[in-house]
From TrEMBL:
Name of the featured protein: Circularly permuted ATP-grasp type 2 domain-containing protein
Gene source species: Asticcacaulis excentricus (strain ATCC 15261 / DSM 4724 / KCTC 12464 / NCIMB 9791 / VKM B-1370 / CB 48)
Domain Circularly permuted ATP-grasp type: 78-453
Record Gene3D superfamilies: 3.30.1490.270, 3.40.50.11290
Top-level taxon of the source organism: Bacteria
Length: 485
């Protein structure tokens, strides 16, 4: 029996309510896993890894002496989300995305929220994510945040909390789709009996979202995916999504702007481009407007965008809502624009630019998680309880020198999930990133990327820091019969 000796060790566990007692929604999966021997599980794990290698679903780790291109480690024991938990998550995400979309529109136009002093104006204008060239922009159909990934963690109380918002170029959806395809081959019986909601229609939803924002009169728009190129860490995903939608994958050399219109170079000559799903960061997208040294962008593309000749997803400027200091104000943002209380709760956050909160952070570095507001991937972070005195001193100096660049949060007791480690099954900490699309309405894919910290005791789940992933099974209601993928 595979899970008979598994211990929850005092953490909230995604499959087990207590040692040997699964959550009601997980009972069917646990029963089927228990019917497999450890040897059988390991054989299936190896089979899954072989499939992923063959598919080429890789990411790049820059500066790694062992090589740059790797598959994301995958664990075959899935993470379950009950129908009730998903319903609550979905409603909270929908509300949050709508509010942040209104916030970005306001920040780059009327700035009412600043005039009403709900958010300090200096917090916005001092942000590295605030892009002055985006002032006055109003994107097609009023949508800025077409594709987003909201990072959640579950604390020891069993509740989900938003850890951060990702509204620029969120990555990882290809792992969600590939993990599901692999999982269906590895554990077909469990998948069929648990009424798992499908994720394979993401490409169709993404295409409809992009088509929705096409310039007026473009009933069959020419849509492309714009990638920085093969050396980007998420290049596989760029190619994968282009293939899923049946649209061209372009680099900047494939595009040209003439008379404020974007064209794609083809063997038949120039073809007008109507919608660009860009996977290039804002500051690199147009060297005439942002970074003049950018070799990745398309000169003139921002002028074409301003004149409504092309639509960009996500809209340039969305990063202001990714700033981890702005994140602390999202409950107020929701209340201000929607006159509703936030359904998806934030992790309590200390703003180091605030004198009192900074004093508290500096006095409690051994207990808190400190994050650089504009970094991601697990970089620029101090996990207080696992840090040394020297590391705490280093971060104290950084905070005092540039307090605007840091926030701090309590060290959460992240939930764990059973994970195949070596010859045994052990608990490892996990987070959760559902993906949402905002076109005519907000659609959140019933699944998402569960990242798992494979190192024992580690709270850092990022792939660049040695983390892996699990397939996430969102379960249907009792009368849900599933949809074939």
């Amino acid at each position: 029996m595979s899970l008979e000796s598994y211990k929850t060790e005092g953490f909230f566990d995604e499959l087990f309510a207590s040692d040997g007692v699964p959550h009601p929604a997980a009972a069917g999966l646990v029963e089927q896993l228990d019917a497999l021997s450890r040897a059988d599980l390991k054989r299936r794990q190896k089979q899954a890894e072989d499939i992923l290698y063959q598919s080429g679903n890789t990411f790049n780790v820059y500066g790694d002496k062992k090589g740059t291109e790797k598959i994301l480690p995958f664990d075959i024991i899935p993470r379950l989300v009950s129908a009730a938990d998903w319903d609550k998550l979905e409603r909270g995400i929908n509300q949050r995305i709508r509010a942040l979309n209104l916030f970005i529109q306001d920040i780059y136009n009327d700035q009412k929220i600043l005039k009403d002093k709900v958010i300090p104006a200096e917090l916005i204008f001092s942000s590295a994510c605030y892009l002055k060239p985006c002032e006055g922009l109003s994107p097609p159909k009023g949508v800025w945040t077409h594709i987003s990934g909201t990072d959640f963690v579950r604390d020891g109380d069993g509740e989900f909390y938003v850890l951060e918002d990702n509204l620029r170029c969120p990555s990882g959806i290809s792992y969600v789709l590939e993990n599901r395809a692999v999982q269906k081959r590895i554990l077909p019986k469990a998948f069929q009996t648990l009424k798992v909601r499908p994720v394979s229609n993401y490409g169709d939803h993404l295409y409809k979202t992009l088509k929705f924002i096409a310039p007026e009169g473009k009933d069959e728009p020419n849509i492309v995916v714009l990638t920085p190129g093969i050396y980007n860490s998420a290049y596989f995903e760029h190619a994968y999504l282009a293939q899923q939608m049946g649209v061209p994958l372009c680099q900047n050399s494939d595009l040209v702007v003439e008379d404020d219109t974007v064209y794609m170079r083809t063997t038949q000559g120039l073809k007008q481009v109507d919608v660009i799903y860009r996977r290039i960061d804002d500051e690199f997208i147009d060297p005439q407007v942002f970074r003049k040294d950018s070799l990745l962008g398309v000169p003139g593309i921002m002028n074409a965008y301003r004149k409504g000749k092309v639509a960009l997803a996500n809209a340039p400027g969305t990063g202001i809502a990714d700033d981890k200091a702005v994140y602390a104000y999202v409950p107020k943002i929701v209340k201000y624009y929607l006159d509703e209380d936030a359904m998806a709760q934030n992790v309590p956050t200390y703003i180091c630019e605030d004198d009192k909160e900074r004093d508290y952070v500096l006095a409690n570095l051994d207990k808190l998680v400190v994050k650089a507001v504009n970094l991601s991937g697990g970089y620029g972070m101090l996990i207080g309880p696992k840090s040394t005195k020297a590391e705490q001193k280093e971060f104290a100096e950084k905070i005092r020198a540039k307090p605007r660049d840091y926030i701090a949060q309590p060290t959460l007791s992240l939930s764990r999930a059973p994970t195949l480690i070596g010859n045994g099954i052990e608990g490892r900490h996990v987070d959760f990133r559902p993906y949402s699309l905002f076109g005519e309405d907000v659609f959140t894919l019933p699944g998402g990327l569960t990242r798992v910290a494979l190192k024992k005791g580690s709270l850092v789940v990022n792939s660049s820091q040695g983390g892996g992933s699990k397939d996430t099974w969102v379960l249907g209601e009792e009368n849900y019969y599933g949809v074939a993928e």
